[in-house]
Design brief:
It catalyses: L-threonylcarbamoyladenylate + adenosine(37) in tRNA = N(6)-L-threonylcarbamoyladenosine(37) in tRNA + AMP + H(+). 43% of the residues lie in helices and 18% in strands. A five-stranded mixed sheet has the order 3-2-1-4-5, sandwiched between helices. The longest helix has 26 residues. By secondary structure, the protein is α/β, with parallel strands linked by helices. Bound molecules: adenosine-5'-triphosphate, magnesium ion and fe (iii) ion (FE). Adenosine-5'-triphosphate binds next to helix 4, helix 6 and helix 7.
């Protein structure tokens, strides 16, 4: 099936087109530069930017794929979770295109899309697959039995998401926003063992598959503050590398453990933080040792994009899942277990 996907849950206006598991177009317009001076995404600014970028980005994707809108078999859109106003722009546009073209509409879950995108690179996901979803708003272990209908959370962060921790540590170090890519880059020059930062929720009595990054973030801030107060130079690269090591150590340790305990031999890592070079390398090492097959999409597909939405939409069509009603609404707190928003008016 030929499906166009629209993503507007945060600050990326993404439009992708796929045929089954083949990527045909991936157009992304980001408003990240407009948010940088505020140190984080400003919802109102994001909504307006989506509104301006929507139609040109759809056109760009169609041009890339060399297709007309009438060629499509369906329109998929992120129905949630995300920023309410931002989601609304994408959902409204998708409804308009679906209605005007007479094509089925698929409202899908942003988090499941972060998992499904891997199909564009490595083919259909094995069932079951363990998914480690690490992004700006989420850090979860998801036992994925069927990417269109059965995604079971085993654990999640109890405070900050991994990406949020990267962004906050970057701010403490004065590295700007978003923090992930720049911490990743700085860390390459640093010693990951220079400072032993805490590994949250790894004690014997802690929840096995939950995460906590707020204590780590505070520990980094306190360490840096002490250096500054003592008038010493802050070894930015060492702090970045040591912080990154603590995050990736916990993430990969728990992911491997979850695979083993559930007899799952495929691990996929998705979401913006999956672009992190140290996370990718450490996961590869540890999975290899544990006999687990690792799947991580290329960095450009880990961060928000429309292709991931199209990928999940195509899988919905492929499996004959019900489409959404044309009065589909966005749900800013759509639970991860709701992979799609089916038409509830149907019998
Ligand atoms: P969610 O998917 O939970 O709704 P989101 O869509 O805002 O949140 P993504 O776009 O999936 O999040 O990911 C953005 C996050 O990924 C940011 O916090 C960013 O700092 C982080 N990130 C991006 N690249 C890297 C990297 N190389 N290393 C670490 N973190 C990264
Ligand atoms: Mg973003
Ligand atoms: Fe995301």
């Amino acid at each position: 099936p030929l499906v166009l996907g629209i993503e507007t849950s945060c600050d990326e206006t993404g439009v992708g087109i796929v045929r089954g598991t083949t990527l045909l177009a991936d157009a992304v317009a980001s408003s990240v530069d407009e948010h940088a001076r505020f140190g984080g995404v400003v919802p109102e600014v994001a909504s307006r930017a989506h509104l301006e970028a929507m139609v040109p980005t759809v056109q760009r994707a169609l041009d890339q794929a060399g297709l007309k809108a009438s060629d499509l078999d369906g329109i998929a859109v992120t129905a949630g979770p995300g920023l309410a106003g931002a989601l609304l722009v994408g959902v409204s546009a998708a409804k308009a295109y679906a209605y005007a073209l007479g094509k089925p509409l698929y409202g899908v879950n942003h988090l499941a899309s972060h998992i499904c995108v891997d199909q564009l690179e490595h083919g259909r996901l094995p069932e079951p697959t363990m998914a480690l979803l690490v992004s700006g708003g989420h850090s979860s272990l998801l036992l994925t039995e069927d990417i269109t209908s059965d995604v079971r959370p085993l654990g999640a962060t109890i405070d900050d998401a991994a990406g949020e921790a990267f962004d906050k540590v970057a701010r403490v170090l004065g590295l700007g926003f978003p923090g992930g890519p720049v911490v990743d880059r700085m860390a390459r020059e640093g010693d990951p063992e220079a400072i032993r930062f805490p590994r949250g929720l790894t004690g014997p009595r802690d929840a096995e598959y939950d995460f906590s990054f707020s204590g780590l973030k505070t520990a980094v801030a306190r360490w840096v503050e002490q250096k500054r107060r003592a008038g010493e130079q802050v070894p930015v690269a060492d702090v970045a590398a040591s912080f990154q090591e603590a995050v990736t150590d916990v993430l990969t340790r728990k992911a491997v453990k979850a695979c083993r305990a559930n007899g799952v031999d495929h691990l996929m890592i998705g979401g913006g933080v999956a672009a992190n070079s140290r996370l990718r390398a450490m996961a590869e090492e540890r999975c290899e040792r544990a006999g687990i097959r690792l799947r991580v999409p290329r960095p450009g597909l880990c961060t928000d994009n429309g292709a991931m939405v199209a990928a999940l939409g195509a899988e919905m069509v492929w499996r004959g899942r019900p489409a959404s009603a044309i009065d589909l609404s966005a749900d800013s707190s759509l639970p991860v277990t709701d992979v799609s928003v089916p038409d509830t008016s149907l019998p």
